[in-house]
Amino acid sequence: MPALSSTMKEGRVVSWLKSEGDAIEAGEAIMVVESDKADMDVEAFEDGFLAKIIVDEGGMAPVGEAVALIAETEADIPAVIAKFSGGGAAPAPAAPASSSNAGAPAASAQAPDCPFSQIDMPALSSTMKEGKVVSWLKSEGDAISAGEAIMVVESDKADMDVEAFEDGYLAAIITQEGESGAVGAPVALIAENEADIPKLQAYAATLSGGAPVAAAATAATPAMPAAAPKTPAAAAAAIASAKGAANGERVVASPLARKRAEELGLDLSTVAGTGPGGRVTAFDVEAAASGAAPAKKPAAAAGAAPAKSAWTPAPGVIAATPTARELAKKAKIDLSKIQGTGQFGRVTADDVRMATGEKKPERKSAAAPGQASVELPDGPVPMTGMQRAVSNNMVATLSTPEFRVSRDIIMDGFDALYQKLKPSGVTVSALLAKAVALAIEKHPIINSGFSEDAGGTILYKKDINIAMAVAIDGGLITPTLMYANERSVVELAENWKELVGKAKSGSLSPAEYNSGTFTISNMGMFGVTHFGAILPKGQGGILAVAATQEVIVPDSQAILGMKKVKKMSVTLTCDHRQIYGADAALFLKTLADIMENKLDLLK
What we know:
Layout: E1 10-16, E2 23-24, E3 29-34, E4 39-43, E5 48-53, E6 60-62, E7 68-71, H1 77-85, E8 116-120, E9 130-136, E10 143-144, E11 149-154, E12 159-163, E13 168-173, E14 180-182, E15 186-191, H2 197-204, H3 212-220, H4 232-246, H5 255-264, H6 282-290, H7 322-331, H8 349-356, H9 385-396, E16 402-410, H10 412-421, H11 428-442, E17 449-451, E18 457-459, E19 466-468, E20 470-472, E21 475-477, E22 480-481, H12 489-505, E23 518-522, E24 541-554, E25 562-575, H13 581-597
Parallel strand pairs: 19-23, 23-24
Antiparallel strand pairs: 1-3, 1-6, 2-5, 3-4, 5-7, 8-15, 9-11, 9-14, 10-13, 11-12, 13-15, 16-25, 17-18, 19-22, 20-21, 24-25
Helix pairs in contact: 5-6, 7-8, 11-12, 11-13
């Protein structure tokens, strides 16, 4: 049972991804373990066969206790099982030292009175006794996050990234780059608070990052000089790394280098590493991508294309995360039909969700270099109460038989009047409401409604209340100018200003927005040249007002036989049950006459 966090004492086997007798490869996930932090995949560190599962799914085991047996060959499975059953099982690797405040200090050193955790040398394979710190990815004092790679350790199998299991600060590095330490020995201290770093650095000086095995190895080997870039040794390490990658071995690279290589579409096995032990750094990736540094050439193989990744699953094995396997099983989807997007082409949970349609495929931003991509809203958003009310009112009119009639109105005189009255606070909305109300006086059928009573009844309305649509944040509302035909345009303008203010503040009373007998929808201020409006429930007509445009028209009095005028397009939508085409046409004719020739009525 591996130590998946610095505080983990025991783990539960969530699921086995392999069955007894299955062939396994180094780097292949074989089980999922639940620690005190999260569920994590556990990979095999050797090739072989899963001979026996000791701890079944759902079972618990202390850290370091054997959970399964791996045979080197399929023929060895019976012997391995017999040896274990006879009590001669190979001893399990010792559990890593605890990384809590109770970590064992050297000699009689007293642990500081502050919250901290200890990073121990992890067991990266079942046969690993000691490990060498290839490089530290963080420096003393740096902030670190749980799940972030902080160092690279060389085991007896391969170089692997080691992640932090808590948030905090890298207070002290006990085992320096190039030094070795026994499995379970302290290699660094993590401070919970940045202010405690000095205390922990003093405490770290009393700790030893190496165990007797490591000390013996150090005594038998000359001291390693400080690493210096561009030395013959470093060059030789880079060449060795190149050869290893070409032979299909694991490419040693920093997490940032892997991320940049993925972004640039670069094969890490073709990049020459200049870091410790030939490790590929982000600088190496950038240099290879720009052509500033020669890329490694993979070893030639007769009739074989270079591998896309440094690890590939065994024949017949589909690389997928445990969650992805579970989701695919529930959805009854063949994992082999899904293109994996995870590391080494592994099928992830999101890949399965996209295959089932539960999640939309992610696409890369097409924004031009240097331009920020625009984040657009996506997915369902609940409607506000006002939006639901507007929606319901629109649906309620779907069964109404309606028709539309349009007409252009010459606006030169109207605009001149507006400019004259504007200093008095008169608005275009007030002038429009007054003109429409006066036209309705001549054609009261336009102000009527239809009732189903007695097989069909026309509801005439003696009051002319002009409702005008106003767009506000989160919806649409129609404040109403009461008795618009009886009031002066100045009074209407003052009333309209008050109503709009209430609409924006959400303080309109019901009588101020639901008492309209005829509605105006004006989108001329947005430059709309022509549109039709939907008939409101209970009303006989609504007038859509578009923008004013300058046009050239024939004029026999002009020198060139043409002149420039301003025209505005209006469209009337009517309930065809009680209003007919001739009624609508005559109403628009009267409206045009008022706005073109009888402007004195609007003052």
